[in-house]
Task: inverse folding
């Protein structure tokens, strides 16, 4: 009788331990499921937020001519800044480095003006240049430092400033907002001056 009672007690104890383990295991599983659910929700929120930003940028690019120009000008200016900073850091010609540093100041001022205007009008600008300078920088990285590198950089900046002048001149007729027209008109002399400098430097590098 005593052995039977002892056996029953042992079985009951084992069942109790098993039940506790199951409760702990289920609790851990529930906690893990809760964490994963929160992670999934956070990831979905981040994706939704990124999609909203992308939609706003696309709307700006494909919308009215004013927002279209502002976004393109911001991207182009960011590209030029990346290239100018490379020239200031890696160029070897003294005139090149001086031009690069001077133009960096002008392009940072333009970036601030474009950003202020975009904020005022509610336009969403992309971060950076969306990789627009990557090809030029990749080409430069393959060049030997010195005259060869300086010439490649000068060619890239001459072409870039020609495109910028063309874009701003075209926008003078395309944009509607007078404040934006005034900003374009005020910026064009600086861009033309940069282009003239780069053409002069290009001639020098060609000798």
Result:
């Amino acid at each position: 009788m005593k052995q039977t009672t002892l056996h029953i007690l042992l079985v009951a104890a084992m069942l109790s331990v098993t039940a506790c383990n199951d409760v702990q295991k289920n609790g851990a599983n529930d906690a893990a499921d809760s964490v994963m659910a929160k992670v999934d929700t956070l990831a979905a929120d981040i994706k939704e937020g990124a999609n909203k930003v992308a939609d706003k940028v696309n709307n700006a690019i494909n919308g009215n001519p004013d927002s279209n120009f502002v976004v393109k000008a911001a991207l182009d200016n960011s590209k030029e800044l990346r290239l100018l900073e490379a020239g200031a850091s890696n160029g070897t010609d003294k005139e090149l480095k001086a031009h690069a540093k001077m133009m960096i100041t002008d392009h940072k001022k333009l970036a601030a003006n474009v950003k202020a205007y975009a904020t005022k009008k509610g336009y969403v600008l992309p971060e950076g240049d969306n990789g627009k300078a990557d090809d030029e920088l990749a080409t430069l990285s393959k060049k030997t430092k010195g005259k060869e590198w300086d010439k490649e950089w000068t060619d890239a900046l001459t072409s870039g400033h020609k495109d910028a002048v063309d874009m701003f001149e075209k926008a003078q007729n395309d944009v509607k907002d007078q404040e934006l027209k005034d900003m374009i008109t005020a910026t064009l002399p600086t861009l033309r001056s940069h282009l003239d400098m780069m053409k002069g430097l290009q001639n020098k590098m060609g000798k």
